[in-house]
Design brief:
Structural class: alpha/beta
Number of helices: 4
CATH topology: Rossmann fold
Number of domains: 1
Distance between the termini: 17 Å
CATH architecture: 3-Layer(aba) Sandwich
Strand content: 15-25%
Number of strands: 4
CATH superfamily: BRCT domain
Helix content: 25-40%
CATH class: Alpha Beta
Shape: globular
């Protein structure tokens, strides 16, 4: 499914462009994704993108709700801004996706 969309399942956060989870799990991978400014999305993003035969906008599948932010005491917008400032090469590309899946 992923490879048909020119994507790849990777094992390292350093190679990932998105983190895919069933629900938000506070883990080393999710903290790394937040630090790097990656989208943390529902597995439905992959299924729906496969049906559409193209990568859909991941922001519509973001699993970081306001409740999650409040429960874990962080702000997603601030995390993304800090990630952008840390990396001048911060680019969101929908043509290639290195997906890191965490169950």
């Amino acid at each position: 499914m992923i490879s048909k969309l020119n994507g790849e399942l990777v094992t390292s956060i350093d190679k990932a462009t998105h983190l895919v989870q069933k629900e938000f799990i506070r883990s080393i991978k999710s903290i790394g994704a937040l630090i790097r400014g990656l989208d943390i999305v529902s597995i439905n993003w992959i299924a729906d993108s496969s049906k559409s035969k193209k990568w859909l906008d991941p922001t519509n599948y973001n699993i970081i709700t306001y409740e999650v932010q409040r429960n874990f005491n962080f702000n997603l917008q601030v995390a993304h801004r800090k990630a952008e400032l840390r990396s001048k090469e911060y680019v969101r590309s929908f043509s290639w996706n290195g997906l890191l899946y965490q169950s």
